[in-house]
């Protein structure tokens, strides 16, 4: 979750706008903070002015944060638009851009992850971002590899956790640090990373974080493929094959009235018929606990899939309303 270029300088040297007010407009552009001090000054400046700005009538001004790893696409921008709505016209929207080394496992190329801070900042100027916090790793982890980390518990041991051991712990550790640094009233996360959203919500609840966690629906291309920074790695042929994921989810959702077993069967048939798609998992789980739902389950469930198409690993999910089928 999560670089202007390394020579862009600190925000104090390259301010492109002040937080709040017109800072998120396309003409001003967001302030870029590279250090903790830059960020702290931007937050304090808004906090001092927010009580006056909120008298305008739209309700209490709030600070909203969207945490990303950069390489922003329309799905990220939709999150920022939603954050602008949640924060209000006089609120503050902070976007963090940080490629977090803790969530990359063995065999995952951290150095190859796409980075385009200048391009990202340009995009964010058009969707209402006030501040971009783009720290270097030694700013987030000033003492090196952290000894104390957040554990995702059993949520981090299944699904993504089975194929990417330690990944969810790395996600929660950086999310908690960024919550402490940004001090938001609300944090917005995309529902495409459903397991991550659930883990963040449980961390906020279990550790009493004073922040509202909001999930925002997945943004898809017209052909149904969920937007992801990883889609850039797909060739034209691979992209066509990748559509099997969303087709499988739709087939499963349409089978919800016939019970959980049929949801799994219909989705599996689509994936089994697809060529060039190597499935890591297909699971129908409780949307609160991530436990597999039994065949007699009735109510909402979450259908998740992860698969490799070529060298690219993709994830997707769909909420399913399941009816109990008693024989």
Structure report:
Pathway: Cofactor biosynthesis; (R)-pantothenate biosynthesis; (R)-pantothenate from (R)-pantoate and beta-alanine: step 1/1. It is an enzyme of class 6 (ligase). It is found in: Cytoplasm. (R)-pantoate binds at residues 103, 196. This protein is 34% helix and 18% strand. With 327 residues, the protein is of the alpha/beta class. The protein has two domains: 6-216, HUPs (Rossmann fold); 229-322, 2-Layer Sandwich (Pantoate--beta-alanine Ligase, Chain: A,domain 2). The strands form two sheets. It has a six-stranded parallel beta sheet, with helices on both faces. Strands 7-8-9 form a three-stranded antiparallel beta sheet, with helices on one face. The longest helix is centred in the last third of the chain and has 19 residues, at 236-254. It starts with 30 loop residues before the first strand and ends in a 5-residue tail after the last strand.
Kindly identify the CATH topology of the largest domain: Rossmann fold
Structural category: alpha/beta
Strand content is 15-25%
Instruction: Tell me how many strands there are.
Output: 9
Q: Determine and state the CATH class of the largest domain.
A: Alpha Beta
SSE succession: EHEHEHEHHHEHEHHEEE
Summed over residues and divided by their number, the pLDDT gives a mean of 89
pLDDT < 50 stretches: 1-27
- Domain module count: 2
InterPro entries: Pantoate_ligase, Pantoate_ligase_C, Rossmann-like_a/b/a_fold
Pfam families: Pantoate_ligase
EC number: 6.3.2.1
Subcellular location: Cytoplasm
């Amino acid at each position: 979750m999560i670089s202007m270029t390394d020579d862009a300088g600190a925000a104090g040297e390259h301010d492109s706008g002040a937080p709040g007010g017109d800072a998120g407009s396309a003409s001003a552009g967001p302030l870029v903070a590279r250090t903790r001090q830059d960020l702290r000054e931007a937050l304090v400046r808004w906090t001092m002015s927010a009580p006056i700005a909120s008298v305008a009538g739209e309700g209490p001004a709030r600070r909203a944060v969207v945490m990303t790893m950069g390489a922003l696409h329309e799905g990220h921008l939709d999150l920022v638009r939603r954050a602008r709505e949640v924060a209000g016209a006089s609120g503050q929207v902070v976007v963090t851009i940080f490629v977090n080394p803790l969530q990359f496992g063995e065999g995952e190329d951290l150095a190859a992850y796409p980075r385009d801070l200048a391009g990202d900042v340009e995009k964010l100027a058009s969707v209402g971002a006030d501040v971009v916090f783009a720290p270097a790793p030694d700013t987030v982890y000033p003492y090196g590899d952290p000894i104390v980390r957040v554990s995702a518990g059993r949520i981090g041991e299944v699904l993504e956790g089975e194929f990417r051991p330690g990944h969810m712990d790395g996600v929660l550790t950086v999310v908690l640090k960024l919550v402490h640094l940004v001090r938001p009233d609300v944090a917005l996360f995309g529902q495409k990373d459903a397991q991550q959203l659930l883990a963040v919500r449980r961390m906020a609840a279990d550790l009493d974080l004073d922040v509202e966690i909001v999930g925002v629906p997945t943004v898809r291309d017209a052909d149904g493929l969920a937007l992801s920074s990883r889609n850039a790695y797909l060739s034209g042929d691979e992209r066509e094959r990748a559509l099997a994921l969303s087709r499988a989810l739709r087939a499963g959702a349409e089978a919800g009235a016939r019970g959980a077993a049929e949801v799994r069967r219909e989705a599996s048939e689509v994936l089994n018929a697809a060529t060039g798609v190597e499935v890591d998992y297909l699971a129908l789980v409780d949307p609160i606990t991530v436990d597999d739902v039994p065949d007699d389950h009735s109510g909402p469930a979450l259908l998740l899939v992860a698969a490799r198409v070529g060298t690219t690993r993709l994830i997707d999910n769909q909420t399913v309303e399941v009816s109990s089928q008693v024989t």
